[in-house]
């Protein structure tokens, strides 16, 4: 029989785990990890250039310099699987009244996620930038690993409930700890990758970049997973120690 304290800890840990998983899933599926604020078009020549960038962007070209320049100039947002730009619904880019803006997105395909990065974006002769390449690959693989660990922990927990066993709780806590570390590593890889990108790609004048709410969701999910892990590990170890003390008392 499980003490009420341990049962309460498991319930709270399960709720925290569920919240963290929902937050991470939303973060992975949305594009607001990083966003740019760009100045509006100021003339027909500028509008024609922006329109050309939009057309190239929507063609799905994965050349890093091409889509990065478009994100810089068109209020772009980027996530782990999506890149989006903010464009007018009609052809009037700068005339008054201000045009109604809509978001157009293009997804990264799985093969594109493994395309190498170069020391000079767009210049394949500059040599592969191994640091940026592996940061990019880690930032989309690690959250999938994190979600996989949580799903595995949930399956083990369900089996433990059906078998009425408290033993797997410690292992489930360790899985949640690893999931939290993977999520934290995802955020770190993303931030490091964006910083390195901005060092080799100078932002146009008047363009500002900022972190988006999707990244903050992922950042919040990491400590939630770790708190769930702490509760589960505490419940498992305390229950085990209490069980051994009770057994020793009965033998004595």
UniProtKB/TrEMBL annotation:
The entry's keywords: Membrane, Transmembrane, Transmembrane helix
Topology with respect to the bilayer: Multi-pass membrane protein
Matching Pfam families: Claudin_2
Coiled-coil annotated residue ranges, if any: none
Any one GO cellular component localisation term in the record: membrane
Domain of life: Eukaryota
InterPro entries with a match to the protein in the record: CLDN1, PMP22/EMP/MP20/Claudin
Chief location bin: membrane
Residues that span the membrane, as ranges: 7-28, 140-163, 170-193, 213-236
Localization, UniProt: Membrane
Entry protein name: Claudin domain-containing protein 1
Species, as recorded: Albula goreensis
Organism phylogeny: Eukaryota, Metazoa, Chordata, Craniata, Vertebrata
């Amino acid at each position: 029989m499980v003490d009420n304290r341990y049962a309460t800890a498991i319930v709270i840990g399960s709720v925290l785990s569920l919240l963290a998983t929902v937050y991470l899933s939303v973060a992975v599926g949305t594009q607001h990890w990083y966003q740019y604020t760009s100045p509006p078009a100021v003339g027909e020549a500028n509008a024609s250039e922006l329109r050309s960038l939009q057309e190239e962007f929507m063609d799905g070209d994965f050349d890093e310099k091409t889509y990065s320049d478009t994100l810089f100039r068109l209020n772009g947002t980027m996530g782990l699987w999506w890149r989006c730009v903010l464009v007018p619904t009609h052809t009037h880019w700068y005339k008054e009244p201000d045009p109604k803006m809509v978001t157009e997105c293009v997804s990264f395909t799985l093969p594109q996620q493994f395309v190498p990065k170069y020391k000079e974006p767009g210049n394949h002769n500059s040599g592969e930038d191994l640091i940026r390449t592996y940061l990019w690959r880690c930032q989309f693989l690690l959250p999938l690993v994190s979600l996989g660990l949580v799903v595995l922990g949930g399956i083990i927990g369900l089996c433990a409930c059906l078998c009425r066993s408290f033993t797997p709780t410690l292992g489930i806590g360790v899985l949640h700890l690893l999931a939290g570390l993977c999520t934290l590593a995802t955020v770190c890889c993303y931030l490091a990758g964006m910083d390195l990108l901005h060092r080799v790609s100078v932002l146009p004048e008047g363009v500002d970049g900022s972190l988006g709410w999707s990244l903050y969701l992922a950042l919040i999910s990491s400590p939630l997973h770790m708190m769930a892990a702490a509760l589960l590990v505490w419940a498992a170890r305390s229950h085990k120690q209490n069980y051994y003390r009770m057994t020793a008392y009965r033998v004595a």
